[in-house]
């Protein structure tokens, strides 16, 4: 069965047959890969957090969709280069659309999911506001970021059917 391919500026193609077997991680960066040291001082990308992400991507057979504010004004290729420079070994395949003012990250992720059929997904974020998608959230502590203990939860979430 073929699906129509619709391209939106700055975003990957909409639903296609490859999506039907894809698992994705919706990735926040600040508070996940870059621990927040103080409310007014954001940290740098932490190699230990990147290694945990690499484990999740590899063991979960997942690609990454960036949902972080880091996606503003950056291409998918630029985001890939930034994370690879810090040791990331996976693939960034897309970024979530930027919602209307006042919309939350959960709504932006839901909008992306409405256009892409996936077999599993996990949201790795330090913000809890995900609406109906909360059951797919792997919540990190903003000062510590992604920890080894988060890997098994994220992988189990990726493997859980979406329907």
Walk me through this protein's architecture.
The protein is built from four helices and seven strands, in the order E-E-E-H-E-H-E-H-E-E-H. With 163 residues, it is an alpha/beta fold. The chain has a domain at 63-125 and 136-143. It has a five-stranded parallel sheet.
State the separation between the terminal residues, measured CA to CA.
20 Å
Output the number of helix runs: 4
- Strand tally: 7
Shape: globular
Residue windows where pLDDT falls under 50 for at least 5 positions: 1-17
How do the helices and strands follow one another from N- to C-terminus?
A: EEEHEHEHEEH
**Secondary-structure-derived class:** alpha/beta
Quaternary structure type: single chain
Strand content: 15-25%
Which percent bin holds the helix content?
Answer: 25-40%
Largest sheet: 5 strands, parallel
Strands in their spatial order, largest beta sheet: 5-4-1-6-7
How much is the average pLDDT?
86
Rg (C-alpha, Å): 15 Å
């Amino acid at each position: 069965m073929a699906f129509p391919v619709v391209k939106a500026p700055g975003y990957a193609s909409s639903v296609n047959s490859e999506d039907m077997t894809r698992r994705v991680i919706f990735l926040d960066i600040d508070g996940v890969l870059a621990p927040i040291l103080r409310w007014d001082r954001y940290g740098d990308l932490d190699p230990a957090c990147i290694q945990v992400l690499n484990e999740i991507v590899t063991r979960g057979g997942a690609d990454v969709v960036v949902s972080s504010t880091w996606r503003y004004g950056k291409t998918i290729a630029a985001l890939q280069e930034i994370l690879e420079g810090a040791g990331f070994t996976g693939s960034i395949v897309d970024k979530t659309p930027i919602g209307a003012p006042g919309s939350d990250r959960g709504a932006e992720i839901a909008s992306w999911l409405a256009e892409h059929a996936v077999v599993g997904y996990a949201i790795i974020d330090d913000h809890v506001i995900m609406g109906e998608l909360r059951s797919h959230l792997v919540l990190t502590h903003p000062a510590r970021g992604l920890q080894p203990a988060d890997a098994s939860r994220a992988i189990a979430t990726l493997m859980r059917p979406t329907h």
